[in-house]
Design a protein that fits this description.
The protein is an alpha/beta fold. The chain has a single domain (about 15-450), classed as Aldolase class I (TIM Barrel, Alpha-Beta Barrel), CATH 3.20.20. The protein contains 12 helices and 14 strands. It has helices at about 30-40, 50-60, 85-105, 150, 155-180, 200-220, 245-250, 280-285, 300-310, 330-345, 370-390, 435-450, and strands spanning about 65-70, 110-115, 125-130, 130-135, 235-240, 250-255, 260, 265-270, 290-295, 320-325, 350-355, 360, 370, 395-400.
């Protein structure tokens, strides 16, 4: 599935000859070079066979045969790399995928925003509080969140710490899945204790029982186990923002004759760094991984035509995913033009909806939040517009957590602005909690059936 020939003029560091946005400024260049060199000598976090397998799954989703569930933290924290947090995150993604299997009646491909989601773009290079100006917090792979001069100084050693935590996280996820944690015969493994008090728990329980009955019936009739029900495929993704980190884990694979980014399975480009002539597009155009690009309301047909040609000149199915993040108020007006532009260019893409980033707002107290109704509205409109235009919405991209946080308002419990401070733990963007995430999965099934 990988692109067959090496692209002319491309190398893992050719992006350095382009204008590249959102890169941290390190004072000690020697320390930076030593960290990048050390990172380039460490074992890869993923392998090319896994990447090629995900590529095939994405091509399948593009044809409407599978559905992509991509979800996880807005920004991972090095301090939160613990078995409990990883298990919670895996549990909610497994629960959501179980609901989607039941509702959509097709395979679900699980892609976690984890094991590398440590860098975040910022709207400004600096932040000022009480007359003091310091570098903006750019994620735990760059600097630290506390507002003091030492914490906010970009530290090259954090590149290595981020790699270590990413490897630990993904290895633990693999061990859980290979050990039977994701076995559909035992969905009780995935129960979140606090979920039993949720108004949605009974709906979820009915879905579990229905699938268990169907599985048991099939196995009793055929006299053989359903092996696909004993483990699931699980892939990692992150925004490929810090290009020195991505470059250091980019390796040439002899069997395919291609360069792979082996820090993750599915890297993506954010809206702020998706300029056609900029460094991120230059780097991404040469790697063999399937790749994604976030597309906002400012994208126009000419830009999309150039973008698809730059990133997928061979028009390979599954190679390029466009994740539209337009906002509930703009999606009905903006999405049809995007679909028309890609179709007019003859481009092969997988469409995924991110209903989170276009719906971020601030409360009167200054906390960032997202209204649950707006998230649902954008998802519903996405399904409706794609269906009306004969297009295929192949997935959803969500910022969520398995923790019992209060960061997005609304949902089954009707969280208000006043509830946010009770358990607001995100250092960057607000996330769906376990209950809201499960409700989103149930709504996706309803929207898709329509």
């Amino acid at each position: 599935m990988a692109i067959a020939t090496q692209l002319e003029g491309w190398s893992p560091d050719s992006w350095q000859r382009r204008t590249t946005l959102q890169q941290p400024q390190y004072r000690d260049r020697g320390a930076l070079e030593r960290a990048v060199l050390a990172l380039s000598r460490l074992p890869p976090i993923v392998v090319s066979w896994e990447i090629d397998e995900l590529h095939r799954h994405l091509a399948s989703a593009q044809r409407g045969e599978t559905f992509i569930l991509q979800g996880g933290d807005c920004a991972e924290s090095l301090d939160d790399c613990s078995s409990e947090r990883i298990v919670q995150q895996l549990k909610i993604l497994l629960q959501m995928s179980l609901v989607l299997v039941h509702e959509l009646k097709k395979p679900i491909i699980r892609v976690g925003r984890l094991a590398g989601q440590y860098a975040k773009p910022r709207s400004a290079d600096t932040e000022t509080k009480d007359g003091v100006t310091l570098p903006s917090y750019r994620g735990d792979i760059v600097n630290r969140a506390p507002f003091d001069a030492v914490s906010r100084e970009p530290d090259p050693e954090l590149l290595l710490r981020g790699y270590e935590r990413a490897a630990l996280t993904l290895n633990f996820v693999r061990a859980l899945i290979d050990g039977g944690f994701a076995d559909l015969h035992h969905p009780e493994y995935w129960d979140l204790e606090f979920m039993r008090h949720s108004p949605k728990y009974e709906d979820y329980k009915r879905i579990v029982e229905s699938l268990s009955d169907s599985l048991n019936f099939f196995e009793s009739i055929t006299g053989r186990p359903v092996h696909d029900a004993q483990r699931v495929d699980f892939y990692a993704s992150h925004e490929g923002l810090h290009l020195l980190y991505e470059q250091a884990q980019t390796r040439y694979i002899q069997r395919t004759g291609r360069w792979y980014n082996l820090s993750t399975h599915l890297p993506w480009i954010g809206v702020r760094t998706a300029g056609i002539e900029h460094g991120h597009v230059e780097y991404f155009r040469g790697i063999a991984n399937p790749i994604a690009v976030k597309v906002g309301p400012a994208a126009d047909p000419a830009y999309l035509k150039e973008l698809t040609r730059a990133l997928n000149p061979g028009n390979v199915p599954g190679r390029l995913t466009l994740i539209h993040r337009l906002g509930a108020k703009d999606i009905a007006a903006k999405l049809p033009a995007l679909i028309d532009a890609v179709r007019a260019a003859g481009a092969e893409v997988l469409w995924v909806c991110d209903p989170m980033h276009g719906n971020t707002e601030s409360t009167s107290s200054g906390l960032k939040t997202r209204r649950f109704d707006n998230i649902l509205a954008e998802l519903e409109t996405a399904f409706r517009v794609h269906a009306s235009m004969g297009s295929q919405l192949g997935g959803a991209h969500l910022e969520l957590t398995g923790d019992n946080v209060t960061e997005c308002t609304g949902g089954a419990r009707g969280l208000s602005d006043g509830d946010l401070a009770r358990a607001y733990r995100s250092t960057v963007d607000p996330r769906l909690n376990y209950e809201q995430a499960l409700e989103v999965a149930m709504r996706i099934g309803r929207y898709a059936r329509r």
